[in-house]
Design goal:
This protein has about 280 residues and is an alpha/beta fold. The protein has two domains: about 220 residues, P-loop containing nucleotide triphosphate hydrolases (Rossmann fold, 3-Layer(aba) Sandwich); about 50 residues, Alpha-Beta Plaits, CATH 3.30.70. The chain contains ten helices and eleven strands. Strands 3-6-7-2-8-1-9-10-11 form a nine-stranded mixed β-sheet, sandwiched between helices. It has a two-stranded antiparallel ribbon with strand order 4-5. The termini are close together. Bound molecules: iron/sulfur cluster (2 copies). The site of one iron/sulfur cluster has 15 residues, from helix 3.
């Protein structure tokens, strides 16, 4: 069972929920927590396991071979991402815009754009009891989150297909990266907060899930701040409310210290039980 934890915006408690849910499930079941928030993975703040392996992820980009090129000018028009331009008798490739589609390399008539592997990021696999934790981290300065997310999902397919649960901590927002992270999930949990900003961003995430045809439910975090507009919206849209996690200063303090919340706060533990019950019933 692959469950994606997502949110329309950052700072709603997505990683907190992913980490606590994964650790609770791992008390009795083989569970993978896959941190796909590759630009800012922070599940590792809460989980310290035994390091199994660290893998350097790479991406393929074309490298112009000046001696072979006949300057036919095809490659700039072949690239949908504007990653190649022709400047006089010079072909310039911009690796930061390249999506590694191989089109220019394969269609260059004289093989003057061979693909070369460049560093993309790292995958770090740790183990802690029944929990496997894989953190994927994009190298600083790079923007290609989706290829790294795909590589992390392939790693999960290869090594953890037999696990009872795979919990995916998705990137925030509704970008390509979020879609890459959630599209293979069996179920998505959207987490929000009961504020106008939370409601607006939740509605975008809901649209995305509906577009993907994904079953999903919503967790309202920091219940007690803001207003009840989020609950009215869920009722109106016939969206399952999985649980409400109360707002409390003590919870915020424990979070800031890197504590595992469900072990110290019965209200969080109870919310996790409700979430597990809902998601198992939905599948
Ligand atoms: S398609 Fe190949 S031969 Fe033509 S300009 Fe580009 S690199 Fe040169
Ligand atoms: S591999 Fe694809 S995206 Fe990259 S430069 Fe070539 S055509 Fe553009």
């Amino acid at each position: 069972m692959r469950i994606a934890i997502a949110s329309g915006k950052g700072g709603t408690g997505k990683t907190t929920l992913a980490v606590n849910l994964a650790l609770k499930l791992a008390e009795s079941k083989n569970t993978l927590l896959l941190d796909l928030d590759v630009e800012e993975p922070n599940g590792g703040i809460f989980i310290e396991g035994q390091c199994i392996v660290t893998i350097e992820a790479r991406r393929m980009v074309p490298v112009w071979q000046q001696n072979a090129c006949n300057l036919c000018g095809k490659c700039p028009s072949l690239c949908r991402y504007n990653a190649i331009i022709k400047l006089g008798d010079y072909i310039m490739v911009m690796p930061e815009l390249c999506h590694s589609c191989h089109a220019c390399s394969e269609l260059c008539p004289v093989n003057a754009l061979p693909m070369q592997a460049l560093p993309l990021g790292t995958l770090k696999h740790q183990s802690l009891g029944k929990l496997d934790f894989v953190e994927s981290r994009l190298n600083i300065g790079l923007e290609q989150a989706s290829p790294l997310i795909s590589q992390a999902l392939s790693y999960a397919d290869k090594h953890f297909a037999g696990h009872d649960y795979q919990i995916l901590d998705s990137p925030p927002g509704t970008s390509c990266a979020m879609i890459s992270a959630t599209k293979t999930a069996d179920y998505a949990i959207l987490i929000t907060e009961p504020t106008p900003f939370g409601l607006y961003d939740l509605s975008l995430a809901v649209e995305t899930m509906r577009h993907l045809g994904k079953p999903f439910g919503v967790v309202v975090n920091r219940w007690g701040i803001g207003n009840s507009d989020v609950l009215d919206y869920l009722k109106r849209e016939n969206i399952p409310l999985l649980a409400k996690i109360p707002h409390a200063r003590e919870i915020a303090i424990a979070y800031s210290q890197g504590d595992i919340l469900y072990q110290g706060f019965p209200a969080v533990d109870e919310a996790l039980d409700q979430i597990i019950k809902h998601m198992e019933a939905a599948l």
